[in-house]
Amino acid sequence: MRRETVTGRVNASLEATVRLSVQGRDGSGTFVDAVIDTGFSGFLTMPSKLVEALELKFRKRGQAVLGDGSSVIFDTYEATVLWNGRPRRIAVDAADVEPLMGVRLLYGHELRAEFIEDGDVFIRILPVA
To answer: N or C: where does the chain have the smaller number of CB atoms within 10 Å of the terminal CB?
Structure first.
């Protein structure tokens, strides 16, 4: 099995970040710098304007409880990200926040980060047991 690694950086706010290539329905794409949020159980959250610009395919409407206990309603879309060198279809939640990468995208991977400004972030596929 090939071991692929996704890399990123820790920013000045001490947030682990990765740059993701996100493609829309017509194959057009952009790069998104996403903060890794281990408290977010989804794949990816992106601003509504970016979801619209990529013309992502609508999937469903959902509801979530945030860390502060408040409840929000959001729309979920479908996008393709380049992950470990391969295209992967994922759910993208539209929210007017900075892009957040959740633990669903990390499933089956090891996350390691050097929590210093400009520290390295490594996401590595776990070996199959």
So the answer is: C
